[in-house]
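Data deposition worksheet. Section B asks for the primary sequence of the deposited chain exactly as it was used as input, without tags or linkers unless they were present during the calculation. Section C holds the resulting structure in token form. Section D is free text for depositor observations; keep each observation to a single sentence. Incomplete worksheets are returned to the depositor.
Section A, Depositor: J.P.
Section B:
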Amino acid sequence: MITAKDLYKRYRNTVAVDHLSFEVRPGVVTGFLGPNGSGKSTTMRLMLGLDAGGGETRFDGERFTSIRRPMNQVGTLLEAKPFHPTRSARNHLKMLASANGIDDARVDEVMELVGLGQVRRKKPKGYSLGMAQRLGLAQALLGDPRILLLDEPTNGLDPHGIHWMRDLLKNLAAEGRTIFVSSHLLSEMQLMADELVVIGKGNMLFNGDVDTFVREFTQTTVVVRSPSAIEFKARLEREGATVSVEDDGALVVSDMKIDEVGSLAFSEQVELHQLSERSASLEDAFMSATGESEQFVAQEPVKPATGGAQNA
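Section C:
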């Protein structure tokens, strides 16, 4: 179990993390989400005692800085390339293993696990970003810890690597480990995470399971296809529904449940070719929840003028 309480960090006049409190349970993957500049990396550094600030975090009841051999209890990946430039990848891990009382055989085991067995004797300075992420994960797994804190672990990985990372973390959680992982890949997080901690401008926006987050910040709609779509649209609106028409003629109905739409169609003898629910995605919910917390807002792209160019 990870228990974070009243985490706080200020940079001069800017509050980066504003009294965050949350728990990360074992046996599930907990995603850590927020826009750029929301304080995710700072929060993780506070949790590990790497930044000065307020509050405390306990890992199975202990502070990270009090654990005698931390790699055996808490595995971390906060940066892509924290490696000595002239030491081989294997020797880098051997150094860490020795400091934490870990057998050298575990070094080769984790390098094979993350797919770097064939390049174990190469220097990490020549690694791609994706290879460096794999080495960072090998470092986090070196002590076979029960807890993992991973900051953007899929950054730089190709689609196969992202799929592998997702399966690995879900399998580790299924073993009863505690997994806390941040990512900007929301489609991937929707497939991987069971629970979420979502922050914006250092403040807690949501802490709970993924399905509840999506329901709370979005709305499920009902899709209707019918030869009498226009007439049925007017009838739905008279019942208080909000209805939009898609390019292919399908009706998208809000503010009315699917069984209510079906009952109305039956009573009005409207022929239906489709009646289904359309659930929102994690990305939709994230955009809705964090819209006011976005720090770096780019301009909307300028749409090209219609009607063609005019002669000078």
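Section D:
The first helix runs from residue 40 to 47.
Residues 7 and 55 are 4 Å apart (CA to CA).
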